[in-house]
């Protein structure tokens, strides 16, 4: 057998083992090493996961001994699994059970597999997710309505399913978004229920927002009363106030990234660009929504809560125009960028309430310090909306 055929055969063996290991609590599937390292607190804590080395799938034991080390599980030509050269086993499960039971060292420095760490509750199994119908798609993949089985109950959820097989970098970014989102607990934020990362394709499972995207809803209902628009924006501002209090910059605030819940409550979604920091500076702006960004972002690559406030002002413009057109729709990105950096802003929508026009213009102030906080925006909307 040549090397290529041998590698292919071993890859098939690893796939078969991974399917068996799926049911075992210490197997963490395709979770990236950074995510795993946070779970291993004490010497001897360990998990088993799958990764790719080059273009080949490999099984790895991640174990803590002073620091976390990631040990490849080797496969011999006669399909035996081993960590050390002295002992081999017919399955990975038997190998792990041996080292846990015997407390034998896997390295001369005293590294042992002492305590298997259970998958967190938010790591879901693909077997418990039943896809129903596709409701959207994007560059990342597709969105489905699905049925999630959780203990003794079944209920509908939304599932973001990634296209194809991801590399380490893309997978880490995907899991990072999920890790950030799972911290959130607010009625105006789409709730993350879990991530299925045991096998490809990776899936993010979210609460179902049956009202769909705010952008599409406004386009289909261009006669909604302005009071309804005010309420939508108050909901969004409440969600963004919560994020700012959590120390998170969203970086992609737009009507397309707001969803409507069962009671038509607006919920902030899509945290693919979000970061948990007060301010971040990017040397290059890659895959960013140019026409929603603040002047200092376009000029210096700076993102902060105040740049989110600027973007919220653009979203206000979208909502009060019923998302008929994108902002600066008559300009290419390059021209819009120059216009925004010069301090020019969008035209005020017809029919916008006076109080909302004032908020919108405050959000668009060229100097970030002059823009309101989300707490102030919520207060100003609340005094108008809830007085009616």
Automatic annotation (TrEMBL):
Q: Which residues form the Protein kinase domain?
A: 129-382
User: What UniProt keywords are attached to this protein's entry?
Assistant: ATP-binding, Kinase, Nucleotide-binding, SH2 domain, Transferase, Tyrosine-protein kinase
User: Per its UniProt entry, what is the enzyme's top EC class, as one word?
Assistant: transferase
A GO molecular function held by the record? non-membrane spanning protein tyrosine kinase activity
The SH2 domain, residue ranges: 26-117
EC number(s) per UniProt? Answer: 2.7.10.2
| CDD domains membership | PTKc, SH2_Fps_family
Segment forming the signal sequence: none
A Pfam match is SH2
The superkingdom listed in its UniProt entry is Eukaryota
Residues binding ATP: 160
**Reactions catalysed:** L-tyrosyl-[protein] + ATP = O-phospho-L-tyrosyl-[protein] + ADP + H(+)
**InterPro entries according to UniProt:** Fes/Fps/Fer_SH2, Kinase-like_dom_sf, Non-receptor_tyrosine_kinases, Prot_kinase_dom, Protein_kinase_ATP_BS, Ser-Thr/Tyr_kinase_cat_dom, SH2, SH2_dom_sf
- Give the matching PANTHER family: TYROSINE-PROTEIN KINASE
Could you say which protein family the record assigns here?
Belongs to the protein kinase superfamily. Tyr protein kinase family.
Q: What is this protein called?
A: Tyrosine-protein kinase
């Amino acid at each position: 057998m040549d090397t290529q055929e041998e590698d292919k055969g071993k890859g098939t063996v690893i796939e078969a083992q991974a399917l068996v290991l799926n049911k075992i609590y210490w197997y963490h599937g395709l979770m990236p090493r950074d995510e795993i390292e946070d779970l291993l607190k004490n010497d001897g804590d360990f998990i088993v996961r799958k990764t790719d080395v080059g273009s080949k799938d490999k099984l790895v034991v991640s174990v803590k001994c002073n620091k976390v080390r990631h040990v490849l599980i080797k496969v011999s030509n006669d399909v035996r699994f081993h960590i050390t050269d002295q002992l081999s086993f017919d399955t990975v499960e038997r190998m792990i059970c041996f080292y846990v039971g015997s407390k034998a060292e896997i390295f001369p420095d005293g590294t042992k597999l002492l305590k298997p760490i259970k998958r967190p509750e938010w790591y879901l199994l693909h077997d418990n997710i039943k896809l129903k119908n596709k409701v959207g798609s994007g560059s990342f993949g597709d969105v489905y309505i699905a049925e999630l089985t959780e203990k003794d109950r079944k209920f509908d959820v939304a599932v973001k399913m990634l296209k194809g097989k991801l590399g380490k970098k893309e997978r880490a970014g995907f899991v990072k978004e999920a890790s950030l989102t799972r911290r959130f607990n607010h009625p105006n934020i789409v709730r993350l229920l879990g991530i299925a990362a045991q096998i490809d394709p990776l899936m993010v499972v979210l609460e179902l927002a049956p009202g769909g995207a705010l952008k599409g809803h406004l386009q289909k209902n261009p006669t909604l009363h302005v009071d309804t628009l005010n309420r939508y924006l108050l909901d969004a501002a409440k969600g963004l106030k919560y994020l700012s209090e959590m120390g998170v910059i969203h970086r992609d605030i737009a009507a397309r990234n707001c969803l409507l819940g069962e009671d038509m409550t607006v919920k902030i979604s899509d945290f693919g660009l979000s970061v948990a920091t007060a301010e971040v500076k990017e040397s290059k702006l890659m895959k960013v929504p140019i026409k929603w960004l603040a002047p200092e972002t376009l000029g210096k690559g700076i993102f902060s809560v105040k740049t989110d406030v600027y973007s919220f002002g653009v979203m206000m413009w979208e909502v009060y125009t019923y998302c008929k057109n994108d902002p600066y729709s008559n300009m290419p990105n390059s021209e819009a960028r120059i216009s925004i950096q010069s301090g020019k802003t969008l035209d005020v929508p017809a029919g916008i309430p006076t109080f909302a026009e004032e908020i919108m213009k405050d959000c668009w102030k060229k100097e970030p310090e002059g823009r309101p906080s989300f707490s102030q925006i919520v207060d100003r909307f609340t005094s108008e909306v809830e007085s009616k």
